[in-house]
Structures are given as structure tokens and as C-alpha cells.
């Protein structure tokens, strides 16, 4: 009997830029190369364009990833409302969902957390986030070596102000009180971008500047954060894979 491949799905909440299409073939490939493994099947749903899986198909997936977005997670566009409804179903089913940036905020929203414009303003660049040592324990998806902090690329103007009651804070920073949280064993939410690299970030910065949505000075400071430092991409990759594949379940 042929073993069935494990299936995962990406809910893409942003459009592919010309650069990402040309360099990577689209954001889908960026996510799959970061979180996917041999022998898996990954499906793409462009939720920003109204593409969603049928309810009857949800059971066949091991886990889901919600991407970042230029849109506000507190918005009421049809596709955002539909995504919230779908995530509530996944919550009821206790399906694993990894929420990144916009996705992190959406999962907070559906569980009763408070989200809105970031109190300290737009955050862009490389940031070090601190693990909440009482909440992060050896043997969960962090593995046995718990870092005190991890560097991650940030690119957001909204944030989670107040966690849902059922959430556990996993990390925070000087710029953002809620950098990462979990709900049970099935939701893991990260404000930063584990899938980003330097060239993706810099291209976004250049594009935002060209649209006159960011001052040159702010852009230069954001780029300067990566002059002599890099994100802990491998550790983020391992952590997210461990969560999605159900390794190191929390007790």
C-alpha cells in the first residue's frame, strides 16, 4: 500500500510582486522552500483573490500557513471575513495553523484578542525578540535548546495589543509586546517573517519608498539593521516545521 503524502496548504493574503515572481516564481515557492519537506504536498489558496478550500476538504490537511498581507487584519473586506470564518472552523477542528504577520493578527482576532495600528509605529528591519522563558519549555517545538532570543525580519504597521484569554505569550521585544504566541497545540502565531531573507526585505523597502509611503531616512535605518547581522532563519525554520509536523508536542 502506498503511503499517502502529508498535505499542507498556504493561505496567501498578498499578491506576488514582480520581483518575487521573477526571482522565486512567487511567494508560494518561498513558503514551501522554507516550511516544506520531501514527500509532502502543498496547495496554494490565494485568499486575497477569494480562493478558499471547500469545507469538506479541510480534514485532508495536516496543517495550514497564513501569510502576511498589505491589508489590515482588523478590516472587513469579504475575503478577510471569510478567512476569519474559515480559521474558526480550523480552530474547532484543532488543525495546526501557523500565522505569520497578518496571519498572526487574524488568529488573535478570531480568538478575541485586540489588534490595531502598532503603538510604536511601522516596524521594518531585523529585530531581536526575547523568548518568554516561563512559557517556552524544553521538549516542545523549540526542541531541547531554548534560545534566549532570536533575530527575525519584521515588516508591519499593525500589531496584537491584547492576547486572547486562551493564548500563551512566547516572545516579546522592545518594539512589540506580542511577538509570538500559541493557543493549545494547534495555533502558532509569529509577528515577524521567518520566510523572509535580506533581498526580499530590501525589495519591499525600495518599493514602499518608490510609492512615497516611507521616508528615505526610515528606509536607510531599516536596511542598516542587516548590515552586520542576519536573521536566525535556520532556527525559525526548524521551530515552524516542528510545529506544523507535530514534532515535540506540548504536554
UniProtKB/TrEMBL annotation:
* GO cellular component entries: cytosol
* Top-level taxon of the source organism: Eukaryota
* PANTHER family membership: GAMMA-GLUTAMYL PEPTIDASE 2-RELATED, GLUTAMINE AMIDOTRANSFERASE YLR126C-RELATED
Protein name, entry field: Glutamine amidotransferase domain-containing protein
Q: Which Pfam families match?
A: GATase
Q: Which organism is it from?
A: Arabis nemorensis
* PROSITE patterns the UniProt entry points to: GATASE_TYPE_1
Keywords from the named record: Cytoplasm, Hydrolase, Protease
CDD domains with a match to the protein in the record = GATase1_1 (cd01741)
Q: Does the keyword Ribonucleoprotein apply?
A: no
- Signal sequence range: none
Amino acid at each position: 500500500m502506498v503511503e499517502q503524502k502529508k498535505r499542507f496548504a498556504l493561505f496567501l493574503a498578498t499578491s506576488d510582486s514582480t520581483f518575487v515572481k521573477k526571482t522565486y516564481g512567487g511567494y508560494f515557492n518561498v513558503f514551501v522552500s522554507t516550511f516544506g519537506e520531501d514527500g509532502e504536498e502543498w496547495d496554494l489558496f490565494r485568499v486575497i483573490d477569494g480562493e478558499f478550500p471547500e469545507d469538506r476538504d479541510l480534514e485532508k490537511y495536516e496543517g495550514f500557513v497564513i501569510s502576511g498581507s498589505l491589508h489590515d487584519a482588523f478590516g472587513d473586506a469579504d475575503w478577510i471575513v471569510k478567512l476569519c470564518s474559515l480559521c474558526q472552523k480550523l480552530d474547532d477542528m484543532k488543525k495546526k495553523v501557523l500565522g505569520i504577520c497578518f496571519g498572526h493578527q487574524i488568529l488573535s482576532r478570531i480568538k478575541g484578542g485586540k489588534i490595531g495600528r502598532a503603538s510604536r509605529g511601522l516596524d521594518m528591519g531585523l529585530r531581536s525578540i526575547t523568548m518568554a522563558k516561563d512559557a517556552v519549555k524544553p521538549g516542545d517545538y523549540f526542541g531541547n535548546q531554548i534560545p534566549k532570543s532570536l533575530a527575525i525580519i519584521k515588516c508591519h504597521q499593525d500589531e496584537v495589543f491584547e492576547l486572547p484569554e486562551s493564548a500563551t505569550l512566547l516572545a516579546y521585544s522592545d518594539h512589540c509586546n506580542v511577538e509570538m504566541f500559541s493557543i493549545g497545540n494547534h495555533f502558532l502565531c509569529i509577528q515577524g517573517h521567518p520566510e523572509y531573507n535580506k533581498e526580499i526585505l530590501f525589495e519591499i523597502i525600495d518599493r514602499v519608498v518608490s510609492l512615497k509611503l516611507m521616508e528615505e531616512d526610515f528606509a536607510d535605518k531599516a536596511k542598516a539593521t542587516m548590515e552586520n547581522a542576519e536573521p536566525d532563519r535556520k532556527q525559525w525554520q526548524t521551530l515552524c516545521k516542528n510545529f506544523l509536523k507535530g514534532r515535540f508536542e506540548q504536554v
